[in-house]
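Dear colleague,

Following up on Tuesday's group meeting, I ran the structure prediction for the two-component complex that the binding team flagged. I've pasted the input sequences exactly as they went in, so you can double-check that nothing got truncated or mislabelled along the way. The structure tokens for the whole assembly follow below. Feel free to forward this to whoever is handling the docking comparison.

Inputs:
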Amino acid sequence: MNLLFLALILGGCNKDKNGQKKNRTNDTGTEAQSIIEVTTWSVTTPDDSAMDVEIEIGPDVTSFMLTGESRKEVGMEGVVDPDGKVLLYWDDWWDSDESLTDAIFGYETTTALNWPIRDVEDPLREGTYVVQVAALGGGGNYTSGKVDLTLHTKKDPSMSEGKVHARIVYTGDVDSDPDIVAATEDSVERWREIWAIHGVELVETYDSAPTIDAHLGFWRNGDEALLDVADGLEPGSVVLYLGESVDGDFDTYGIAGGIPGTLANSPFTYVVVSWLSHAGFDAQFTKGEKSIMGETMAHEIGHYMGLYHPVEDGFNYWDALQDTPRCERRGACEDELASNLMFPYSVCSYSGDDCVAAGELSVDQQGVVHRYTGTQ
Amino acid sequence: MLTILLAAAAVAAPAEIEITPAQTAMHRALSLRDGSPPCADVEGLSKTPVADLKFLVANATAPPWVGMRAAECLIAGHPTEITAELDTWVTDPELAGLGILTLNRIDALPIEIATHVAALALEKGPERIGARKRLEKAERPEILELVKP
């Protein structure tokens, strides 16, 4: 199967069809020290296959993120290095009990692929990479579609230090309550503390979006209204929306717009968190509840930066990292992973603030975060 | 059974209580960080789901969303069995989170219960729950009638 894919890639590598590589615009960060470059262009995919999109990687580039936006659902089916070596092939992961990236699935109209993801992937080198981009119609079938592409690249060899710019956005009239604002700021300090342990400096700014409903109903389908909020942000920024609930319900407490989430300004550029779910029955934050909300913020942004739960709640699906245990029972998983930031649930007694602090990341998990193109 | 220390959510004094395996299972299911399973799945963990959900609302304080989600399951699936609780949730300042949740879900309640709860919240609800502004977002005319200027 891989050979077939390789043959398809090689056959299409040199084609410059459907506008690929034409009319590309290039932008760089506004700050002098920015190490992220941004390029945008559009392609039209064929109706019977994915399209080979060529990515020129310059010297010293360490990570790239390719984002595809379309009226169709967008999948990123493979990555091939300059020698024609297949680095990622969708079918290797489609039915796997391990998760590497959501980019292969093509569930959304905005899809992002960050590469490389893990330590076991070869570092980038100068040359032409190919990413297979597909527009998908009903039933996941190929369809022809215009796909707007955004390429972010970064030059950042450090796997131990970096910073992430985050914009925290109060929706509706959430920021009219000083108690919620104070609790949010305290929660952000917990988030900062967690990330600092893993070599990531949080650089946050705050904003208000009173016209965005505080029930955050956009999380399933995205929202064009988010474009204005993220407009003009430092390249590489992530955006966290704080609302009262997620989609008006209390079955979702926080969610990321993708694994990984895009760095492009899109309707899916978001992480959402519900303040009320974290304040609980009395709508007042205890010290422990603020700490848990900070962990949720770091957890959801962790998803956005490409991290999966090390084990899912059914204990039969795992992340694709080598140093997170492949535990298979609740007790064993809690013993080994309850303090991991990405563990899927909070391990608490019933009472008060008595929850296991969840801020740890394994070395491989830290590597995913530092390879995320937004981590500078 | 597991013995735990209760730091009261809806009751005042800490006390030692015993929780059942079903309550433990429901608590775990509702502890997921990103989001919880559907109410039907959670209730399927217990032979007495209403009583156990009520227990979680009253007693489970950590993680903070467990009681809120349990309350939402009660509102969505068992509103006629929690009329007394609804009255308390929208009037007790110590339960403002549950009051906000109830008002946000007012359209999910049977209309007789919804109008009663809405009127009670407008009359006796604590300022914190913002009854008027939340009820103005209701869809049903019977509720909107209550908040007419």
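The longest strand of chain A covers residues 36-45.

Cheers,
M.
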